[in-house]
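Dear all,

This email documents one entry for the complex benchmark we are building for the journal club exercise. For each entry we list the sequence lines for every component of the assembly. Then comes the predicted three-dimensional structure of the complex as a C-alpha cell string, followed by one or two observations. Please use this as the template for your own entries, and keep the labels exactly as they appear.
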Amino acid sequence: MTIAPRKQKILAAVIENYIACGEPVGSKTLQNSEDLNVSSATIRNELADLTLKGFLIQPHTSAGRIPTEQGYRYYVDNILEAREPDDGVKRYIENKLQSSFDAPERILKSAGEILSELLSTVAVATTPPGEDARVHRIKFVQTGRYTSMLVLITSSGMVKSRLFRCDFDITPEMLNVFDRSLNEALAGRPLSCVNQPFAQTFAASFGELGLLMPDMLTAVMDACFEASGINIYTSGTTRLLYQSDLDLVSARSILEFLGSESECEKTLGNVPDGTNIYIGRENPSPLLRRSSLISARYTIENQPAGTLALIGSMRFDYKKAVSIIEFTAKTVSQLISELVRKG
Amino acid sequence: MTIAPRKQKILAAVIENYIACGEPVGSKTLQNSEDLNVSSATIRNELADLTLKGFLIQPHTSAGRIPTEQGYRYYVDNILEAREPDDGVKRYIENKLQSSFDAPERILKSAGEILSELLSTVAVATTPPGEDARVHRIKFVQTGRYTSMLVLITSSGMVKSRLFRCDFDITPEMLNVFDRSLNEALAGRPLSCVNQPFAQTFAASFGELGLLMPDMLTAVMDACFEASGINIYTSGTTRLLYQSDLDLVSARSILEFLGSESECEKTLGNVPDGTNIYIGRENPSPLLRRSSLISARYTIENQPAGTLALIGSMRFDYKKAVSIIEFTAKTVSQLISELVRKG
DNA sequence: AATTAGCACTCGCTTGCTTAGAGTGCTAAT
DNA sequence: ATTAGCACTCTAAGCAAGCGAGTGCTAATT
C-alpha cells in the first residue's frame, strides 16, 4: 500500500514526534512543529484517514494519535532512510572495537556494550554458530594430580577449554594416549559427531583402558557441544528498568527472553541477513510480542555469521538504532574477518 | 535492649504476618491468628509501646503496623532461631550440588541457582579471592599460527586460561622459551607480583627477544589479575521483577549493584564469617540501602573462602532464607574442600 | 475539488466532596 | 494489669462537576 506524499509526511511526523516525546500527537502540535503549510483541520482529515487505514490509533476520543504496529512498519519500510552515524560516533565505535582486537568473543562483547550504551537499551551479541565446524585439534594440559584441561580447536579457529577430573593419578603417558587416539579419531570430523554413542564406541575400543576415559570423554563432548552452539552476550539489562515507556509486563518478558538461552538462540540464530526490524507481534519469539527487536547480522569473510540485536519497546528510535547497528555490524565484520584471515 | 516476653511474641507475630502477607497488621488480626489469650485492646497497648520504642511503624493512623528496620533487626537477633531445612530440601540441595562436582566454579554456580530457585529471589555466589595465591605453573598451548593459549595454575589449584595473539608466526621453540623463562621467574611468586613493572623488566632482560613478548605478557598479567580477583555468579535476576513488594527504585538499585562488578566484589568480599543479615541502611553498599542482604561464607578446609548471598526487599522470609543458605554454605564447603584435598 | 474556519461534541483527567471501614488511643470499669 | 466501649483519624472508593485537549462535521472559501 502506498500513501500520498503529504499523508506520508504527516505519518512520519506523528511517529517521530511520538518516538521523541512518548505522548499522543495532535493536529495542532503537528501544525506547529512541522513545515506543513496547511491548517490543523486539513491535518485532522489526514489523521482521520490514516487512522481508518490502520496506521494510527487514538487511545481515546480527546487524545492525539499514536502509531500502530502497522504504522511503525510502514515508517520503517517506506520512510526511514538509512544514514551513517556521525563521524564522532563512528570514531567512537571503531576505537572501542579495535581496543578488543584479539579474540572474536571480546569484539562481540564490546559491540554489545557499545550498542547498549549508545542507544540506552538492551543489546545482545551472538557468536557465530559452530554447527558445521569440525574438530581441528584437541590438546591436553595437566593441571593437577587428578585434573587436566582439554583444549579444543575447531576448524573455524574457535578455542574452547574444559577441565576434567579423574579418580586416578593422571600420567603424561596417559594424556599422550588420549591425545593421539582422540585426534586420530576426531580430526576433521564434524563437532556433532562427538556424542554419547561415539564416546561409548571409542572407550569400548580400548578395552580395559577405556574404563579410564569417561571423565575425559565427557569433557570432550561438553567442549564440542559448547563449540557447536552459539554464545550470547547481553549488555544493558539494567537499562530496561529505566525505560519509562516499558510496562512491567513487557520488561518481565524481555528479561525472561534474555534469561532463556534457548529462546535467545532460536530467535537470534534464525534472523535473516542484513538489518531487520521486528515490531510487536511480528516477533518470532512470543516473549517479545510487545517489544521491538532490531537485528543485524555480521559476516566473516562475507559469510553470514552471528547477530547483533537491540531490544526495546516498540517506541524505539529506529532511525538512530538502524544507523548505529549497521555501522557496528559492518565494523565487527571487518575486524573479525581480519582476525580469521590471519588465523 | 530486651523486651518483655509477651511483647516479643507480639512483635514476632507482626513481623511474621507481615512477611507472609505484605500488609500492615492490626490488633484484631493478631488476636485471631495467634494464641495470645488477651483482648485486642491489650494488644493495642503493646503495639503502641513497640511503636514508641521504634520497632514498628504505622503507615497512617487507620492502618496496622509494619516492622521498621530496627524491628527486623530485633527479630533477626533475638527471635529467629536457626533451623535446618526439611529433609526433602536438604536432599535436593545435596543432589544438585553433587551433580556439578568437578570444578569449584560449577559448584558455586549451582549453589546460586539453587538458592535463587528455592527462595524465589536474587542469589549471588563468589569464588574465593585468590589474592594471596601464588603462581604454581604456567603452560602454553599453541592454538593457531599466530595464537596461543596460556594456562595458569595457581597454588590454590585454580586454573585460568587466556588466549593471546602475536604479530609473528609462533613456533614451538618460542613457546618453550616462554614456558621455561616464565616459570623460572614466577613459580612460587604471589600473583600480585605479576604486574606492569615486572613485565617490563622481564621483557627487557631478553633484549631483542623481549620485543616478541608483550602480547604474551599481557595475557599472563590478565590471567594473574583475574585469578587474584573473585568471580561473581548471579542467578535469578528475572525474579526481581516478580517481587511484588519491591518498588522500581529498589529494583533498579539492586540491578545496578549486580551490574557493578566492583560494588559486588567490595561488598561480598568484606562480609564477616558465618551467616550475616544486613537490613536496609545497615548495608555497606549504598545501592542496597533499601533492601536486605543475607550472606553466608563458605569455607575451604576450614579457612573462610567465598560468599553466598541473597538479595531482596527487607520483607524477606528470613527464617527460610537463613536455614537454606546455611545448609547450602555448609554443603558447598564440604564439597569444595573435598575437591581441594584431592588436588 | 481541496482547503479551512468554526463549532459542537466526546472523553479523560483533576478536584472536591461524601461515605464506609479499618484501626487506633483513651477512659473508665473490672 | 486488663478490658470493654467509644470517639477519633485517616485511607480508599465512589461520584459529580468542570476543564481542556482534541476531535469530526458542516458550511464557507479558494
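Observations: The first strand of chain A starts at residue 56 and ends at 57. Chain A has three domains: 5-79, 87-129+230-342, 135-227.
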